[in-house]
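Data card: per-record layout.
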Amino acid sequence: MTEFTADRPLRQRSGLSWQLSHLSWPEFRHQPWRHLTALLAVVLGVALAFSVQLINDSALSEFSAAVRSVNGQPDFELRAQRGGFDETIYARVANDPRVALASPMIELDTNGWNSAGQRVPVRVVGIDPLLAVQLSADLMPQLADNDGVGRRNRLFDPEAVYLNADARRRLSMPERSDDADRSVKLQAGVELLDLPVRGSVAAGGPPLVVMDIAGAQQRFGWLGRLSRIDIRLVPGADRQALLRELALPAGVRAATPAESAQRVSNVSRAYRVNLTVLALVALFTGAFLVFSILSLSVAKRLPQLALLGVLGLSANERLRLVLAESALLGVIGSLCGLALGTGLAALALRLLAGDLGGGYFPGLTPALQFSPVAALIYGCLGVAAAMIGGWLPARIARDMAPAQAIKGMGAADRPSHRSSLGPALLLAGVAMAFAPPIAGLPLAAYAAVALLLLGGIVSVPSGVATLLGGVATPRNPLVLLAIQRSRHQRHTATIAVAGVVASLALAVALTVMVASFRDSVTQWLDTVLPADLYARTAASAAADTAYLPTGLAAAVAMLSGVERVETQRVTQVQIAADQASVALIARPLADPARRLPLVGDLMPVGDGETAAYVSEAMVSLYGAQLGSAFMLPLPDGRRVPVRIAGIWRDYARQGGAVLLADVDFERLTGDRRINDLAIWLTPDASLGAVQDGIRQLVAEPTTPSPSSTSPSGKVPDLIEFASVSEIRALSLRIFDRSFAVTYWLQAVAIGIGLFGIAASFSAQVLARRKEFGLLAHLGLTRRQVLTLVAVEGAVWTAVGTLLGLLLGIAVSVILVKVVNPQSFHWTMDLVLPAWRLAALCLGVMAAGTFTAWIAARAAAGRDLAVSVKEDW
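The structure for this 872-residue chain is written out next.
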């Protein structure tokens, strides 16, 4: 062993690196699994948060690149609602001398069908090749080399289509130079178009089909209409003056090419932030595990640190040593977490295609894009979490009295001089919960949750005193001794119970939030799905190109086994350029109070007014208050006044939805098309027979030709059926899969809390060996001493469980009533799952008691009576 002399104190002979290698490293080698557990907590917290950041950044970047390749590089675009605008506007724009180039386009969503007869959502873009090449080079068709004669003429073939790479892959059409005799099947209404493939386009992103604008107008019913006009101005031209003089119709506006990417970024921002915060919960709980591990490590090394103090290691150097250990854990854990997070992000992008369950980036398969800035931020967060966890153990090492600690005398339980800090933090958390969102995000609500958790932890000693103050004096001496010690040494409970309070509070909050959301979704499904069978021909994105025949509803109502039929029309309108499209829904509304999941009462509508029923998102995003007048945009670009007659919950559309009676929608738009059928069956109806009858009705007017069949001979099914039980099961399955990560976080939080209480009790047993030795001299057996520690563990765990339960319910109220409405613009009813919470609390109490007993058994394994003789 190295010799130390009085004239050469320890701090002069060794630096921090020597202390870490000679003092900290032996402790790590002696208890590797314990320290690896703390390291793993940091690794998981950093990995989860960093992987979420990488996935979202990669998806957003890929989406922006795809938008740029489709939109090209014009100075600006003229756009309208999804229904487009009159193509005569193009002549006015193109002939203006300030316009150097104007390229007309059509954009629409529909369904394609691959060789296996599977539906593939695709976007169809109609272009004028001679004009688009100068503004949107990635959309320029690249002709296949299959014959040489008439090749240029095929560029203007109105039937020819050109596919991007993702469309080729998903439509079972691999890249090759010869596309002769190959075709793609696209849906228009209930008709299946069979269009020849003549080449490819370089545009990236989701499946894209490019064709001549005249062919797109004719085949998809867009004659006389355009979706947009890309405009490049002559140098020096004034865009605002041009727009004023053009006097464009209402609903036609100038837009930037990057508007779509910015809109998706804005809409998905709350989802991305919530995912990141949820991932950081693991890092937050990991700090408590680091705290518990280092507390135990310091407790075991108190005699060693005391000897070093006598030999010249100052209090501040002891503080720096423990902080350096926690920082080292943080650095190693962060580096491993960044590597693991990168791997998780790459795997998620490959398996989940960057969507993360939010539905914001459908069809994208982005490549991983590593961000050094994000890596630095999350690496620093990991180090900071570890150092926060090591701060209190470092202070214990600094504040100990070496002369007493070297004799095995632990520091007395000193009362806190900041007893008001806990209630102050709790009150600040409650006040922050009432703050409005910041930049559209519930940042104040997240701060409120953090303040409540910190305030609850700081209030543990006061809570122990309050709860144990009213306990009657027990007759059992062991129980009496345990309660009295817990009451008078209540500040020590902060170390033992803090992890349980924090982890149980998070687990309770997540349990209540998920239960509340699931119960609200279940009730919502009961209201919005009253029929027995549902039929549709397209998802909402393709609702304007894939629709059912007008007279189908009447024909279905005549089928055997059908009691009655209701129709639904769904389209999309854009209210704000920076927000997602709003769903415009039309269906029969004879009794809105019964057929809608209303929030509040209905408002009467005056004669001559059109009643509109809006989702909660419309109130938050556009101020559509109950009873107010609202200018509703229609698909053709016109805006009409409606009266808000009711507000309803809609968990399917975060961007908002407006519901009109079908008669009002048809009167305003003249659109009689339908997308969905709700079918009530008679008691003796055969579900399969009704479905076959509807398929036959759909196929009769547009019987597919032999060329419309797949290579296997199967005719694609242009209509989808789902029973109410299937829709309910699928919806709840998607819900449970979306919240699967919360269950994992609950398990991690509880595990960290129990491991923390084990480490804390182990540390206390080490510090109390002389106390146990004295009890042994007084006649207590080792079993009774262990029982005493187990009772103390039960008392403190029970107090921590009660505090954690109350704190968790308070946090859940903020999550349910503040975070969700501010993030996703919908509300839900607070549900407290009593049996689940009771089982969770009882499990924590039982596990905490058993964990304390195991820790005491392991730490007090030597002869207790001998320990009282130990003296330096």
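Known properties of this structure: The first strand starts at residue 76 and ends at 79. Residues 1-7, 701-715 have pLDDT under 50 and may be disordered.

See the next section for split statistics.
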